[in-house]
Design a protein that fits this description.
Strand order of the largest sheet: 3-2-1-4-5-6-7
Order of helices and strands: EHEHHEHEHEHEHHEH
Low-confidence stretches: none
Mean pLDDT: 94
Distance between the termini: 44 Å
Number of strands: 7
Strand content: 5-15%
Structural class: alpha/beta
Length: about 260
């Protein structure tokens, strides 16, 4: 496959080298995709882990070493106008988008009694509304052959003491199931992947031990675990899987 024949994947939420988004970019680049990606430094600045200053250069260089063209867009997905602008930017740089992989999120722990209206609205703006608008822009501009298109969203079963995150991810799953049917005339498959608790730097030693002991396969999930499933779903071999919420968690959810 020559470079100009590589299909284009847009991966959102690629902020840190330790994150699942970065692993997905690497796996897709390895498998012959050109990559558009989004990141939002202001989100990392608000989180305990902080900004990964070298992430964009390192992730881009790794994908390019695997033969991919890469185009990065800094994007505040809390704004309703951002998805349309992102697609215009990526299409202008790389061409039509064949796969949309949504790994972005707003995730700040809070429960029923202490969640604020502002936090609730921000979670739904980023996790649900932006995802709907991204899917809409993708579908409006999809020009690939029937059966080639892919939409994949990362979801989560977390909800207790993580209310706005879990509720907005539930809305995201409903969106994906709707897309799997409503986009049938385009031949686009749509699926959600729940990676389960994945060690991207947010677990302390006690939590890491707890999750490992409560996972049947007796290890913690790592970003590559989810990325390999996403890469399979984006491949021709994964094209028959549609309208599913898939767990890639080593059995953690089944054991709870």
């Amino acid at each position: 496959m020559t470079q100009h024949q590589r299909p284009v994947a847009l991966v959102t939420g690629v902020g840190r080298r330790a994150g699942i988004g970065a692993a997905i970019v690497g796996a897709l680049a390895r498998d012959g995709w050109d990559i558009g990606l989004t990141y939002w430094r202001a989100y990392d600045d608000r989180m305990d882990w902080g900004r990964d200053e070298e992430a964009l250069a390192a992730i881009t260089a790794d994908a390019q070493a695997r033969g991919a063209r890469v185009h990065a867009v800094e994007a505040d997905l809390a704004l309703a106008e951002t998805p349309e602008a992102v697609f215009a930017d990526v299409r202008g740089a790389l061409g039509d988008v064949t796969a949309l992989v949504m790994a972005h999120c707003e995730s700040v722990d809070s429960s029923i009694l202490d969640t604020t209206v502002e936090a609730w609205d921000r979670h739904f703006a980023v996790n649900a509304r932006a995802s709907w608008l991204l899917v809409r822009e993708y579908a409006k501009g999809f020009a690939g052959p029937h059966g080639a298109g892919r939409i994949i969203a990362l979801t989560s079963s977390a909800i207790v003491h993580n209310l706005p995150y879990g509720a907005s991810k539930g809305a995201l799953e409903r969106l994906i199931l709707a897309a799997a049917v409503e986009l049938r005339d385009l031949g686009v498959s749509a699926n959600a992947v729940d990676p389960g608790p994945t060690q991207t730097g947010w677990m302390d030693d006690n939590l890491e031990t707890y999750i490992r002991e409560h996972t049947p396969l007796r290890r913690n999930g790592v970003p590559a675990d989810c990325a390999e499933l996403v890469a399979f779903l984006c491949s021709e071999r994964g094209g028959w899987i549609n309208g599913q919420v898939l767990n890639s968690d080593g059995g953690f959810n089944a054991a709870r």
